[in-house]
Amino acid sequence: MLIKNQFHEGIRNGSITVTFRNWKTSRVKVGRQYRFGLNDLLEVDSLDLVAVSSIIEKEAINAGFAGVSELVAFLNKNSTAKVTDKSKVYRIGLFYIKDKKYSNPAENIESTTQSIEEVITKLQKMDRLSKHGAWTKKALTLIQKNPRTAASQLAKILQRETQPLKADIRKLKKLGLTIPFETGYELSAFGKAVLKKYEEYIK
Known about the structure:
By secondary structure, the protein is α+β, with helices and mostly antiparallel strands.
């Protein structure tokens, strides 16, 4: 996925968290990492096909534009097919991977060789350091009960903001506990084992 130079700094500083593409078919996958710049990495954490008419101003700003009209003008300039309000385009959620540089283009999921007990210790530390209280068991349990459910829906159930919750779920993924899909998540086999043991710890 080509990211133009004008958007690089915004991705690095976190002001750009989404991009839009006028593709016939998707060229990216959720959970896959992609290189931009010389050796920076970003991860695709969501992928949706949406009508241009449904794009709101905030999304356009989060994509690095002044508003929807500027975004549509950019899409028209950079695609062969004309983009109108009736067109459907891909909305791609982006997450900049700090402190990690490009090394292997096939790398897309971090695995863990840690024991269940070691991971539970890390989860408990995450809970202690969290500004919104203990969340790890709640999130794992919710994902297990609601597989492949959009993060926005999970956030409503937990009464949390969507983006902070997605950031927390990425932490679980890095421990090998969750698997991302185009919509939502599932627990990995290791994640299910950790949750089962974790429930025993905090009964």
